[in-house]
Amino acid sequence: MVAGGSDGLGLAFAEALAKRGLNLVLLARQKERLEAAAKSIREKYQVDVYAFAADLSDYTRTKEIIAGLNFQIGLLVYNAAYAPIGLFEETSEEQLALAAAVNVRTPLLLCKLLSGQMIQNKRGGIVLMSSLAGIQGSPRLAAYSATKSFNMVLAEALWKELKPHGIDVLGCCAGAILTPGYQKAEKSKTAPGTLPAAKVAECAIKALGKGPVTVPGGFNKFVRFLMSRLLPRRAAIGIMEKNTGGLS
Three-state DSSP class for 68? Predict the structure, then answer.
Protein backbone atom coordinates (compact mmCIF):
# COMPACT_ATOMS: atom_id res chain seq x y z
CA MET A 1 0.00 0.00 0.00
CA VAL A 2 1.34 3.39 -1.05
CA ALA A 3 -0.43 6.29 0.64
CA GLY A 4 -0.06 9.36 -1.52
CA GLY A 5 0.68 7.32 -4.63
CA SER A 6 -0.73 9.35 -7.51
CA ASP A 7 2.34 11.38 -8.50
CA GLY A 8 5.76 12.59 -7.37
CA LEU A 9 7.54 10.45 -4.82
CA GLY A 10 4.50 8.26 -4.17
CA LEU A 11 4.31 7.31 -7.84
CA ALA A 12 8.06 6.62 -7.82
CA PHE A 13 7.57 4.25 -4.87
CA ALA A 14 4.70 2.54 -6.67
CA GLU A 15 6.76 1.99 -9.82
CA ALA A 16 9.79 0.77 -7.87
CA LEU A 17 7.66 -1.79 -6.05
CA ALA A 18 5.77 -2.84 -9.18
CA LYS A 19 9.13 -3.38 -10.91
CA ARG A 20 9.86 -5.91 -8.17
CA GLY A 21 6.61 -7.76 -8.93
CA LEU A 22 4.52 -6.49 -6.02
CA ASN A 23 0.79 -5.91 -6.44
CA LEU A 24 -0.29 -2.49 -5.23
CA VAL A 25 -2.98 -0.57 -3.42
CA LEU A 26 -2.70 3.15 -4.14
CA LEU A 27 -4.38 5.81 -2.03
CA ALA A 28 -4.52 9.48 -2.95
CA ARG A 29 -6.95 12.37 -3.01
CA GLN A 30 -6.99 13.29 -6.70
CA LYS A 31 -9.00 10.60 -8.47
CA GLU A 32 -8.01 11.31 -12.09
CA ARG A 33 -4.28 11.37 -11.40
CA LEU A 34 -4.57 8.27 -9.25
CA GLU A 35 -6.43 6.26 -11.87
CA ALA A 36 -4.01 7.37 -14.59
CA ALA A 37 -1.06 6.26 -12.44
CA ALA A 38 -2.70 2.89 -11.72
CA LYS A 39 -3.42 2.29 -15.41
CA SER A 40 0.13 3.14 -16.42
CA ILE A 41 1.67 0.82 -13.81
CA ARG A 42 -0.65 -2.08 -14.74
CA GLU A 43 0.29 -1.81 -18.40
CA LYS A 44 4.01 -1.33 -17.81
CA TYR A 45 4.67 -3.91 -15.09
CA GLN A 46 1.81 -6.41 -15.42
CA VAL A 47 0.85 -6.31 -11.74
CA ASP A 48 -2.50 -5.81 -10.03
CA VAL A 49 -3.09 -2.21 -8.96
CA TYR A 50 -6.08 -1.17 -6.88
CA ALA A 51 -6.67 2.58 -6.75
CA PHE A 52 -8.86 4.27 -4.15
CA ALA A 53 -9.50 7.99 -4.09
CA ALA A 54 -9.29 8.98 -0.43
CA ASP A 55 -8.58 12.09 1.57
CA LEU A 56 -5.86 10.86 3.93
CA SER A 57 -6.88 13.40 6.55
CA ASP A 58 -9.94 11.15 7.00
CA TYR A 59 -8.65 8.05 8.78
CA THR A 60 -12.14 6.59 9.16
CA ARG A 61 -12.57 6.49 5.38
CA THR A 62 -9.07 5.05 4.94
CA LYS A 63 -9.86 2.32 7.46
CA GLU A 64 -13.10 1.49 5.62
CA ILE A 65 -11.17 1.01 2.38
CA ILE A 66 -8.77 -1.41 4.04
CA ALA A 67 -11.62 -3.30 5.70
CA GLY A 68 -13.18 -3.84 2.26
CA LEU A 69 -10.10 -5.49 0.78
CA ASN A 70 -10.18 -9.26 0.31
CA PHE A 71 -6.42 -9.57 0.79
CA GLN A 72 -3.82 -8.48 3.34
CA ILE A 73 -1.33 -5.62 3.15
CA GLY A 74 2.26 -6.77 3.64
CA LEU A 75 4.04 -3.44 3.11
CA LEU A 76 2.96 0.11 3.94
CA VAL A 77 4.67 3.12 2.40
CA TYR A 78 3.28 6.31 3.92
CA ASN A 79 4.32 9.13 1.66
CA ALA A 80 1.30 11.45 1.92
CA ALA A 81 1.96 14.81 3.54
CA TYR A 82 0.48 18.26 3.88
CA ALA A 83 2.84 21.21 4.36
CA PRO A 84 1.36 24.60 5.20
CA ILE A 85 3.99 27.13 4.13
CA GLY A 86 4.38 30.50 5.79
CA LEU A 87 4.70 32.12 9.16
CA PHE A 88 2.93 30.31 11.99
CA GLU A 89 1.02 33.48 12.89
CA GLU A 90 -0.45 33.53 9.39
CA THR A 91 -1.33 29.82 9.27
CA SER A 92 -4.97 29.00 9.95
CA GLU A 93 -6.28 26.51 12.49
CA GLU A 94 -7.74 24.52 9.61
CA GLN A 95 -4.33 24.21 7.96
CA LEU A 96 -2.71 23.11 11.20
CA ALA A 97 -5.43 20.53 11.86
CA LEU A 98 -5.01 19.18 8.33
CA ALA A 99 -1.25 18.84 8.78
CA ALA A 100 -1.76 16.95 12.04
CA ALA A 101 -4.36 14.65 10.47
CA VAL A 102 -2.47 13.78 7.27
CA ASN A 103 1.07 13.75 8.67
CA VAL A 104 0.52 12.33 12.18
CA ARG A 105 -2.89 10.81 12.95
CA THR A 106 -3.38 8.71 9.81
CA PRO A 107 0.15 7.25 9.57
CA LEU A 108 0.13 6.49 13.30
CA LEU A 109 -3.20 4.68 13.16
CA LEU A 110 -2.37 2.94 9.88
CA CYS A 111 0.78 1.55 11.48
CA LYS A 112 -1.34 0.24 14.33
CA LEU A 113 -3.99 -1.22 12.02
CA LEU A 114 -1.70 -2.91 9.49
CA SER A 115 1.02 -4.07 11.87
CA GLY A 116 -1.50 -6.26 13.70
CA GLN A 117 -1.87 -8.59 10.73
CA MET A 118 1.86 -8.38 10.00
CA ILE A 119 2.57 -9.56 13.55
CA GLN A 120 0.29 -12.56 13.02
CA ASN A 121 2.02 -13.35 9.74
CA LYS A 122 5.50 -12.84 11.23
CA ARG A 123 6.56 -10.65 8.32
CA GLY A 124 5.94 -7.25 6.81
CA GLY A 125 7.35 -3.81 6.26
CA ILE A 126 6.60 -0.15 6.97
CA VAL A 127 8.25 2.90 5.40
CA LEU A 128 7.48 6.32 6.87
CA MET A 129 8.67 9.38 5.00
CA SER A 130 10.39 11.99 7.11
CA SER A 131 12.49 14.98 6.12
CA LEU A 132 15.66 16.89 6.88
CA ALA A 133 13.24 19.65 7.89
CA GLY A 134 12.30 17.49 10.86
CA ILE A 135 15.80 17.34 12.35
CA GLN A 136 15.31 20.77 13.91
CA GLY A 137 12.68 23.49 13.86
CA SER A 138 12.21 24.92 10.37
CA PRO A 139 10.83 28.47 10.20
CA ARG A 140 8.00 28.90 7.67
CA LEU A 141 7.48 25.13 7.90
CA ALA A 142 6.84 24.88 11.64
CA ALA A 143 3.95 22.40 11.57
CA TYR A 144 5.41 20.31 8.76
CA SER A 145 8.85 20.03 10.37
CA ALA A 146 7.30 19.04 13.70
CA THR A 147 5.19 16.31 12.10
CA LYS A 148 8.16 14.96 10.17
CA SER A 149 10.13 14.76 13.40
CA PHE A 150 7.23 12.73 14.82
CA ASN A 151 7.37 10.26 11.94
CA MET A 152 11.11 9.74 12.34
CA VAL A 153 10.85 9.05 16.05
CA LEU A 154 7.87 6.74 15.48
CA ALA A 155 9.80 4.78 12.84
CA GLU A 156 12.79 4.38 15.15
CA ALA A 157 10.65 3.05 17.99
CA LEU A 158 8.66 0.68 15.79
CA TRP A 159 11.85 -0.59 14.16
CA LYS A 160 12.95 -1.90 17.56
CA GLU A 161 9.53 -3.10 18.75
CA LEU A 162 8.43 -4.90 15.60
CA LYS A 163 11.76 -6.41 14.54
CA PRO A 164 11.25 -9.54 16.71
CA HIS A 165 8.01 -10.16 14.79
CA GLY A 166 9.82 -10.19 11.43
CA ILE A 167 8.63 -6.71 10.49
CA ASP A 168 11.07 -4.19 9.02
CA VAL A 169 10.39 -0.50 9.74
CA LEU A 170 12.23 2.39 8.15
CA GLY A 171 12.15 6.15 8.49
CA CYS A 172 13.34 7.79 5.28
CA CYS A 173 14.81 11.20 6.05
CA ALA A 174 14.83 12.90 2.68
CA GLY A 175 16.10 16.26 1.54
CA ALA A 176 14.52 18.21 -1.28
CA ILE A 177 12.95 16.01 -3.97
CA LEU A 178 12.17 16.97 -7.57
CA THR A 179 8.40 16.56 -7.38
CA PRO A 180 5.67 18.75 -8.88
CA GLY A 181 4.83 20.07 -5.40
CA TYR A 182 8.41 21.06 -4.62
CA GLN A 183 8.93 22.76 -7.97
CA LYS A 184 5.73 24.73 -7.46
CA ALA A 185 6.65 25.85 -3.93
CA GLU A 186 10.31 26.65 -4.55
CA LYS A 187 10.53 29.89 -6.48
CA SER A 188 14.29 30.31 -6.20
CA LYS A 189 16.96 27.94 -7.48
CA THR A 190 16.87 24.23 -6.64
CA ALA A 191 18.33 23.44 -3.21
CA PRO A 192 21.69 21.63 -2.98
CA GLY A 193 21.26 17.88 -2.64
CA THR A 194 17.92 17.81 -4.43
CA LEU A 195 17.26 14.30 -5.80
CA PRO A 196 14.94 12.78 -8.39
CA ALA A 197 11.95 11.02 -6.84
CA ALA A 198 12.93 7.68 -8.38
CA LYS A 199 16.34 7.74 -6.66
CA VAL A 200 14.80 8.49 -3.26
CA ALA A 201 12.31 5.64 -3.64
CA GLU A 202 15.04 3.19 -4.66
CA CYS A 203 17.27 4.22 -1.75
CA ALA A 204 14.44 3.71 0.73
CA ILE A 205 13.40 0.30 -0.60
CA LYS A 206 16.97 -0.97 -0.65
CA ALA A 207 17.53 0.30 2.91
CA LEU A 208 14.46 -1.47 4.32
CA GLY A 209 15.65 -4.12 6.76
CA LYS A 210 19.10 -2.58 7.23
CA GLY A 211 18.38 -0.15 10.07
CA PRO A 212 15.82 2.30 11.43
CA VAL A 213 16.76 5.36 9.33
CA THR A 214 18.08 6.10 5.86
CA VAL A 215 19.08 9.41 4.32
CA PRO A 216 19.15 9.32 0.50
CA GLY A 217 22.10 11.09 -1.08
CA GLY A 218 25.64 11.73 0.14
CA PHE A 219 25.15 15.48 0.48
CA ASN A 220 22.01 14.98 2.55
CA LYS A 221 23.79 12.51 4.83
CA PHE A 222 26.41 15.17 5.48
CA VAL A 223 23.72 17.78 6.15
CA ARG A 224 21.97 15.54 8.66
CA PHE A 225 25.23 14.88 10.50
CA LEU A 226 26.11 18.58 10.48
CA MET A 227 22.68 19.79 11.63
CA SER A 228 22.06 17.14 14.27
CA ARG A 229 25.55 16.43 15.65
CA LEU A 230 27.94 19.32 15.03
CA LEU A 231 26.00 22.58 15.06
CA PRO A 232 24.26 24.16 18.07
CA ARG A 233 20.46 24.01 17.72
CA ARG A 234 20.13 27.76 17.25
CA ALA A 235 22.63 27.67 14.37
CA ALA A 236 20.80 24.76 12.70
CA ILE A 237 17.49 26.60 12.98
CA GLY A 238 19.09 29.71 11.48
CA ILE A 239 20.36 27.74 8.49
CA MET A 240 16.91 26.27 7.92
CA GLU A 241 15.40 29.76 8.03
CA LYS A 242 17.65 30.84 5.17
CA ASN A 243 16.80 27.73 3.14
CA THR A 244 13.03 28.01 3.58
CA GLY A 245 12.84 31.72 2.80
CA GLY A 246 12.08 31.08 -0.87
CA LEU A 247 9.12 28.78 -0.24
CA SER A 248 5.59 30.01 -0.81
Answer: coil
Catalytic residue among 148, 163, 210, 221: 148
Distance CA 109, CA 40 (A): 30
Selecting among 144, 163, 189, 242, the annotated active-site residue is: 144
Distance separating alpha carbons of residues 154 and 104, to the nearest angstrom:
10
120-151 pLDDT, tens per residue? Answer: 999 999 999 999 999 999 999 999 999 999 99
2-244 CATH choice from 3.40.50.720, 2.40.160.20, 3.30.70.1250, 2.60.120.1140 = 3.40.50.720
Q: Is residue 144 flagged as an active site residue?
A: yes
Backbone angles phi, psi at 115, to 5 degrees: -70, -25
163 is a catalytic site residue: no
Helices vs. strands in the chain: H and E counts, helices first:
10, 9
Which tens digits make up the pLDDT trace of 159-208?
999 999 999 999 999 999 987 554 454 555 677 889 999 999 999 999 99
Residues 109, 112: Cα–Cα separation, whole Å: 5
Give the bridge partners for 207, in sequence order: none
